[in-house]
Amino acid sequence: MTGIDLVPLVDEGLGNSAYLVDLGDGRALVVDVSLDLRGAWRAARRRGLTVAFAADTHLHADFLSGARHLAATEGTQILASAAGHREFTHNGLHDGDEIDLGGLRLRALATPGHTHEHLSFLLLDGDTPAGVFTGGSLLVGSAARTDLVSAEQTEDLARQQYASLQRLATLPDEVAVWPTHGAGSFCSAPPGTERTSTIGREKTSNPLLRAENEDGFVADLLGSLGSFPPYFLRLSEVNRRGSVVLDTDPALPPLDVGAVQSLLTDGAQLVDTRSVPEFAAGHVPGALSIPFRPVFASWLGWLAPHDRPLVIVRGADQDPAEIAWQATKIGYTNLAGELTGGVDAWTAAGHSATSTRLVRAGQLGRERILDIRQTAEFAAGHLPGATHIELGELAARAGDLSREPTVLMCGHGERAMGAASLLEQAGHRDLAVLDGGPQDWATVSGRSLESRT
């Protein structure tokens, strides 16, 4: 590979990578950058660069694109598929179109599958292909999911994805592969630490590139699809119309108890971002527990309403600006603010708080065990006799569950506490959360976990 000065901008929580390319003349290209532009700006300013081009491979379902904000604030030229029919100024590209970046060139490659309008971008140094930004087509060890448009189109898109990967596989082996979706993404990336690869490496190690034929590829890809956050179904259209241009950085305005009570009366939702032990010790009744950690945005988009005001209850050591950014980048611009003084202020004003029991693996008795992990996690190993409902499905199914003593469990406790808070909202009582996961139980009990093939 030639000496391309490329900076990956990794969002560990969403499992995605954006990229900044130094064009060598004081300008930069960014690819698939989100509305949270802080990392891109830091990388550009360290090098004294202005962002001249912003390329989007597809109408991202898992974050708001930052391209329109860059165009409005820095005059950045947006490069994107003409087939995306974006409703704002951009350079609409077709298959084979090239953009002169000043020494480097960017060639659009139609690679539908993940979405209909998907483009990959081949970066050329002179006539030498250096790397390809594959977005949601070819991933490290996989390919992105094809079920985000509709169930009726999923198989057809999978067949288009097959053709797209076969096309990319014709590039020289030494060409770098720079995907957007990586480990941790719900766009179907497998676990692993490698976020970039090469065409040659993928041809030898990616099982989907080694599928015997198109039908085998489709069966393997569709068989690997798990659930995904419902906000994925909204953001592509938001990005097509044009994501927000922020006047100021997102923030959490302070709200006193009276203001919060008024908001709750009008239908607002409390989101408690504190740690599992803090929430367990005492929380506002009806609060939704989503502990603040790298995957906060994904679970906020999975569990919290997007069409009602959200009031945050946070820990003293949690950065309110970071919470606001995590929400904003996935289209949650409905943050009303934060409860000043937290739960202490709430109870000091005469309102009640409630608690949730935390139990250790060695304390489990005859209670119902409700495992709320993803289906693949449950299949890999779970407690004998455990009931399984994915966390993302729990609110809809809470009314069907019998009201009996229940211990919620996940891998460590964070998702289980979210599950407990959802069941509390639905009127369930006598709930506890396992402080730990299945392996802790296996270690303490000396028994084996059950698995499903």
Give the C-alpha Rg: 23 Å
Largest sheet: 6 strands, mixed
The strand count comes to 24
Counting helices, strands and paired strands, the structural category is alpha/beta
Explain what you see.
29% of the residues lie in helices and 23% in strands. The protein is α/β, with parallel strands linked by helices. The model has no long low-confidence stretch (mean pLDDT 95).
Task: Provide key terms for this protein.
single chain, 453 residues, alpha/beta, six-stranded mixed sheet, 15 helices, 24 strands, globular
Question: How would you concisely characterize the structure shown here?
Answer:
By secondary structure, the protein is α/β, with parallel strands linked by helices. The protein has 15 helices and 24 strands.
List the helices and strands and how they pair.
Layout: E1 5-11, E2 16-22, E3 27-31, H1 38-46, E4 50-55, H2 67-74, E5 77-81, E6 91-93, E7 98-100, E8 104-110, E9 119-125, E10 128-135, E11 138-139, E12 142-143, H3 154-168, E13 176-179, E14 197-198, H4 199-205, H5 214-223, H6 232-241, E15 254-255, H7 257-265, E16 269-272, H8 276-281, E17 288-289, H9 296-303, E18 310-313, H10 320-328, E19 335-339, H11 342-348, E20 357-359, E21 368-371, H12 375-380, E22 387-388, H13 391-397, E23 406-409, H14 414-425, E24 431-434, H15 438-445
Parallel strand pairs: 3-4, 4-5, 5-6, 10-13, 15-19, 16-17, 16-18, 18-19, 20-24, 21-22, 21-23, 23-24
Antiparallel strand pairs: 1-2, 2-3, 7-8, 8-9, 9-10, 11-12, 13-14
Helix pairs in contact: 3-5
